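Go through this fold for my students:
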Amino acid sequence: MDLRKKAESSAAKAEEKASLLEEKLSTLSESIDREKNRLQNELLQMRSESKLSVSRISADCMQEKYELEKKSSIISPEVPSQDTNLLLKHLQEELRNYESEVREARKLKASHEDIELLKEKLYEEKSRRERTELDLLKLSDLQLNVKRLEDELCTWKSVVREIPGVSSADDILPKFAALQKEVVDSMMRAGDAQARMKEIQVSLDAAILDKQNAETEAAMAKERAESYKAEIKQLESVLGLITEERDRLKDVVKELKERTSLDGGTESVSGTIVQELEASLAKKENYVTELENSLLEKKEINSRQQNEIKLLNERLANEARRVKMLEREGDRLRSEISLLESKLGHGDFSSANTKVLRMVNTLAVDNEAKQTIEALQNELQKTKEKLQAVEELKKQSSDAGTHVDSYIAAKIKQLKEQIATLEKREERYKTVFAERISVFRRACCELFGYKIVMDDHQRPDGIPVTRFTLHSIYALSDDEKLQFEYESGNTNIVVNDYTSQPEISRQVDIFIRKMNSIPAFTANLTVESFNKRTLS
C-alpha cells in the first residue's frame, strides 16, 4: 500500500509539474515571439534611421567644416565677429546632437546585443521545451509502468494472502521450496501407501480364500461327524441287541443246567446242546468285544474329528479376525491416501510436519526392502506350513481325502503362483536396489571424488556400527584410505596408518576435531591429492 501511494503521489506531482511547465512554456514562447518581432521591427527602423542620420550628419559636418575653413581663411583671427560666436554655438549644439545620436546608436547596439541574448534564451527555451516534451513522453511510459507494477503488486498480494504461512515477499521462495519438498514427500508417501494397500489387498484376498476353504473344511468335518454319530448310534443299537441276545442265551444255559440237574438221563444230549450254546455264546461274546472295540475306535475317531472341527473353527475365527483387521487397515490406508491426495491437490503445508527429501537408495530404504523381503519369506514359510498341514490332514482323514483333492490341487497351484510372483518380486526388488545402489556409488565417486564401501559389524561390547571406507580417485596407492564409523547419527574417524601420518593427522586435528567439519577435511584432502597427482 505504501508503494502504491508513493507511486500515485509521484505520478500526480509529475503531472502537475508537467502541466505547469507546459503553461509556462506556452506563455514564454508567446512573449518571446512578440518581443522578438517588436525588437526586429525596432532594429530595422533604428538601422535605417541611424544610417540616414549618420549620412546626413557627416554631410553637414563636412559642409560646415568646409565653410569654417573658408571663413577662417578669409576673416582674420584678431577681429572675431558676432557671427562667429553664433556659429560656434550652433556647432556646439550640433555636437551635442551628435553626442546624443551616438548615445542612441550605442543604445541601439546594446539593444542589438540584447536581441542576440534573447535569441540564445529562445534557443535554450526551445531545447528546454523539447526536453519537457520528452519528459512528458517518459512520464506517460512511467505511468504505464506504474500501472503495470500496481497490477502485478495486487496479483502478488492476492497470491501471498492465499498462501498459508507467508507474511512477506521474502517468505515466498522458501515457501515454494518447502511446498515442493512437501509435494514430493506426499507423492512418495502416497506411493508407499498404495503399495502397502495392494499388498494388504492381496493378503485380504488370500485370507478370504483361506476363510472360504476353512468354512468348506468345517462343513465337511461336520458332515463326517454326523455320519460318525449315526454309525455310532447304529453300533450302539446292534450292541444292545447282541447284549440282549447274550443275556437271553445265558438264561437259556442256566435253565438247561437246571434241567440237567433234575433229569439225569439226558445228560449226553444236554451236554452237546450246552456245548453248542456255549460255543455260540463265546462267538457272540467275541462279536460283542469286536463291536465294543469298533465302537471305541469310532468314538476316538469322533473325538479326533471334533478336535479337528474345533481347530477349524478356531482357524475360521482367526481368519475372520484377520480379514476384519485387513479391512480396517485397508480403510485406514484409503483414508490416508485420500488425505494425501487432498493435501497434494490444494497444497496444504505445515512447517512442523515438513520432512527433508531423502534419496531413494538410503539405508532406511534398504532396511525397509530387507524387512519387506523377510516378510515375504515369512509369508512363504507360513504358506508352506499350511500346505504341509493340509497334506497331513489328508493323510489322517483318508475318507475325506477324495473330496478335497481338487481343492488341495487348486490351492497348491494358487500358492505356487503366489510363491512364483513373490520370488519374481523379490528378484526384481534385489535387481532394482542393486542398480540404484551402484548408480548412487558411481555418482558419489564422480561428484565427491571418493569410492565408498559400506559394511556393518559389531564392536566388542556388542553395539552394531556401520563402517564407511573412502578411497580417493586421486590416491597414489591403495593404502591411502579413510575410515569412518557411523552410529546413532554420530560419525567418527577411525585412526589407521594413513591418518597417522603427520600431515594427515594435522588436518584431522584442524578440520575434524577443532572445526568439526568432515566435508571440509575430505575436500581439502581431495584438492591436495589432485595437486600431487597432477604435479607428479
Observations:
- The CA atoms of residues 220 and 403 lie 9 Å apart.
- Confidence is low (pLDDT under 50) at residues 345-361.
